[in-house]
Amino acid sequence: MIWLVLTYIIVILVPFLFKSRIKSTKKENFLYIVIATIGLLVSLSIAIKKPFSPDHMIATMIDFMLGNGK
Fold first, then answer.
1. 52: which of 1, 35, 45, 68 fits an S-S bond (Cβ 3.0–4.6 Å)?
2. What's the distance, Cα to Cα, between the start and end of the chain in Å?
């Protein structure tokens, strides 16, 4: 499990070191972190053998933001 978290940290930090040379927006950086975090959650769910559906999570978040999931 430690290796998975270390890999996640490397996946987050290394691109930002290279991106410092080019201009990127905050929105682009935020989206990259969100996608990498979803990848971490899926990997963790596989490692602990608990089913996880990103589609269900995203639908739940959209419902909550729109006020349909009170």
1. 45
2. 34
Model pTM above 0.85: no
The predicted model gives 22-27 an average pLDDT of 79
Q: Are 12 and 36 in contact (CB under 8 A)?
A: yes
* Residue 22 Rama label (left phi>0; alpha psi -120 to 50; beta): beta
pLDDT digit string (tens) for 34-61?
Answer: 888 888 888 888 888 877 777 787 788 7
Average pLDDT over the chain reads: 79
Inter-residue contact 41 to 52 (CB < 8 Å): yes
DSSP character at residue 22: S
- Rounded to the nearest 10 degrees, what angle do helices 2-19 and 26-47 cross at? 160
What are the C-alpha distances in Å from 50 to residues 9, 44, 46, 63? 22, 9, 7, 23
